[in-house]
Amino acid sequence: MTDDGITHSSAIGQWPDPVCQVATDDGTPIVEWVNEGFELTFGSVEAGEPAASVFETLELSVVLGPDDPGEIGTTDDTLIIESGTRSTTAGSRDRYLLRVVSADENADGVFLFSPLPTGATRAAGEIGLDHVASVISHDLRNPLDVANARLRAARESGEDKHFEHVARAHDRMERIVEDVLTLARGAAVVQPDERVDLASAAAAAWGTVETHDADFAVDGSLPTVVADSNRLGRLFENLFRNAVEHGGVDVTVTVGPLAEAAGFYVADDGRGIQPGRREQVFDPGFSTDDHGTGLGLSIVGRIVDLHGWEITITESAADGARFEITGLEIGCENVA
Fold first, then answer.
1. For the whole prediction, is pTM greater than 0.70?
2. For residues 39 and 24, is the Cβ–Cβ distance under 8 A?
3. Res. 12: pLDDT tops 80
4. What residue ranges define each of the domains in the chain, with the CATH number in brackets?
């Protein structure tokens, strides 16, 4: 069914994740075509089958979304799908974030499946399943809207450039899901067994964040520490993103060593954090921004805790926010 003469963008055909193209027949979504990624992941289907029948045949069940499978594809939507035919480990089933761009009288619809990390939406932990569902169904809305708009543009114009925007939106969604899992999982999520140069880790993290006109500086000589390099990078990313989002696009962010403790600080010259809110900001779901997930600083606090470090918030020399992380293991020999 991957090469049956149905018109579709070449980029959709080459997309590595499962993609399904649908049309409507009296309001019922009908599968017209699937890409190779779909067939390799879920199995083959016949063109002309109702989408609901395909889901039943391939044992694709809705974990988060409409109770009636017949409603899938009738409107733009975001769902979580579980596959009963493929599993990553014994006793577990793969789950996918399904982005639906519904068909209309001018263009076919698209189902785009994105694999979710093992454990997504099963997490109960500190934030609870309700908040996991809230993040996935609500806080993913912005990148999903971007992805859906670009998918519509791609299918109408046939221009592959729109998929660059879809890919960036996908990266944003992956980061949100990973943040949720970092909060929900236990100590196994952090493996502090590497020697990490703080200055290099901070600079690399700064390069991954949308910083607009913000400036970055390292004040003093930062040490090498024992840490989980990936999670330390996420800690820096979230602190930098918080500074830019709340301190302004032209904020200056500074990283430096602490003079009287084994640790470092991240400071900015933004508007700071009120003393009464300095403990709250680490609570999952707490945000002073209507468009925020309330997860960024919660992730920071979680990573700090799982390393056995401590974090405090004070006021920076420029009246902004200053995060101090202490309790680090400094100057060790190779621990790998």
1. no
2. no
3. no
4. 10-185 (3.30.450), 191-326 (3.30.565.10)
